[in-house]
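Lab notes, practical 5.
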Amino acid sequence: MASDVAGGPGPTPPDTPSDPAPEHPAKADPAPAVAPDPSRGSVRVDSWIWSVRLVKSRSLAATACRGGHVRVNGERVKPAHGVRVGDEVRVWHAGRERVVVVKELLRKRVGAPVAVTCYLDNSPPPPPREAAVPIGLRDRGTGRPTKRDRRELERLRGAGPGVTRGPDAPTGFGDPSPRGRSGSPR
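Output from the prediction step:
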């Protein structure tokens, strides 16, 4: 009691933190989707083309890079190549070449309206639909195609099983040795 009257230390106030702690520390501050300083940073090219929605998945972006379908400033790049603001990125995907200039670096996928603002699209316009000639359309009522019709369609398309066949072409069945069925030793 003497300490209360003499002006000594009285009851201490409850501890009040000057900075309240977040309720959920794991959800406190997610990583920013935009790089902190775009002028000096870089982002993986596969991650960036996925983030700005030029391809549907990150694995497709990495596969396109590995296949040589992605070029940065004219050079073929690997998936981990860094892309910076001002770089020209060319992506060949879904039968079309996309040419974009990086305006903003993204680390995470964003919505389509935001993604469009992160690059300058210099892609050539897609060909008009009527210019593309459909191959393989047959007149109604003509029936199933014959073997000759099928071969002509394969020849027009430029691919198919009939194109690679020949006397020297591999058959694709097992051992390529010259032994035949009857000549195999047992």
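Observations recorded by the TA: The radius of gyration is 32 Å. The beta strands are 43-44, 70-72, 75-76, 82-83, 88-93, 96-102, 119-121.
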